[in-house]
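Q: For a teaching handout, I want to show students what a protein-ligand complex looks like in token form. Below are the inputs, and the small molecule is 6-O-phosphono-beta-D-fructofuranose. Please produce the holo structure.
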Amino acid sequence: MTPSTDWRSFRLDASEAERGLEKLRVSQEGMDVRSALAQDPLRVDQLSWQLDGLHLDASKQRWDKETLDGLISLAEEAGVKQAIEDQFSGATINHTEGRAVLHMALRGRPEDGYQVDGKGVMDEVLATRGRLLDFVDEVHEKKAQGTVTDVINIGIGGSDLGPAMACKALRRFASGPKAHFVSNVDGAHIESVLEQLDPAKTMVVVVSKTFTTQETMANAEIAKSWLRKANLDLDQHLVAVSTNLDATQAFGVPLDRTFGFENWVGGRYSMWGPVGMCIALSVGRTHFEAFLEGARHVDQHVQSSELENNLPVVLALLGHWNQNHLGMRSHAVIPYAEDLGRLPAYLQQADMESNGKSAGRTGEPVSWNTGAVVWGEPGTNSQHAFFQLLHQGTEIHPVDFIAFRKPTSGHVQMHDKLLANAVAQAEALLMGKDAEDDEPHRNFPGNRPSTFFLFDELSPFSVGQLVALHEHRIFIQGVIWGIASFDQWGVELGKALANALLPELEGKSSEVPHDASTQSLVDLIRG
Ligand code: F6P
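A: Here is the structure, written as tokens, with 6-O-phosphono-beta-D-fructofuranose included.
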């Protein structure tokens, strides 16, 4: 076993295990997974894992048991176990913002005993969850009476993507008001939503951790005027979710319609608490609780499993291997479930905002790749769009296939077709095909890696599992890469410049100096 270092100062360029992995890469150069699968009867078992209704098969990836062992040594040396323990203990692991990272408490049970700064947080979490679910019951009654038919979530980034993804994913479990999402500061977004709705029967939920985000506040003002114009009592139609209760009150939302949360919940990790209001409103109390429970099972798994059977750890290591040893810089996520259509967009923020960093935890620059470019679209649509490049392009992009054994719609006869496509695409990427008559345009090189996530069913529990697997995978990858996964300073500069530019475009000031290209755009816009 490799001795572990302090994960907070671990650097890959000083890692013995990482050097061993590079040697292994050289010796495994040109690995042909097709032959490996043909020759090694243990390969599929050794590179597949099971977890509560999930079968995860990574045997089509360009690695083997020896690679996995080397990667596990890296996780040991990087102090991954301690990092996980520290996160769950409520330590200040988000050191650049001086905060704990404890979104797991939002899906916890009383016995989980989460603490921050030595103080238990579950009483407060459960009280807020209780209020949230009582509110959900109340709105469901109003839905039954026909007085609330629609709810609009106004938020952006973590205050939008997770809830929007989960509401769509759980469409078949919906029993509450229809959920709509408005995020963009392009007025076309809110316009296209409001024009379908009756303000008298609509609930507007303004979700913003800071309650200062330009896009959200602009959309919230428009929604408020829309309600006012209809002579409605704002108190009955507006709800706020935030950590900034002064700002929610100043906006005019009474405290009893406001749901708070703590700074130890990061925006992109927040859908388990009040930020998930629209998920809970849509699917109701019982399904929302099942969604939390799916994620909680993964929390227990990540804490209690040995590294080699710990799915978030294994996925984090595989991502590192693909990125930093095999040079595969992107990561395609293809759900074979129309209802998971927003999963790639949600994962883009979760992953790229967390791990798109080039300063190491200790401040020195990193000399290895960090966050992968995450992208994707549901299958089978994506097969008729960009799969050409996956099969025959010059670069190799590992793919996650996500599929469900049970039908994901009432049209059960279509499900076999959907699954046949998912499995066949993974097989085609792997096996390739030599062109007949050596016609190069018809040649499929094959040996292209993918991981297959096969869940029993698309349910609140499995969606909770899937999201929590990625949340933990992202943090563990950040530990291996020695970066600070929980801040997002990289988004601040653009926001500040937009605020500075706005008065210029409004003709109120023209004093801000710009580069020549920017100045010419400003001039063109101002006319
Ligand atoms: O732009 C980045 C960001 O800060 C995200 O991290 C966050 O999820 C989003 O903006 C929205 O922030 P808020 O919830 O404070 O409105």
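A: Two things your students might notice: The first strand starts at residue 48 and ends at 51. The radius of gyration is 24 Å.
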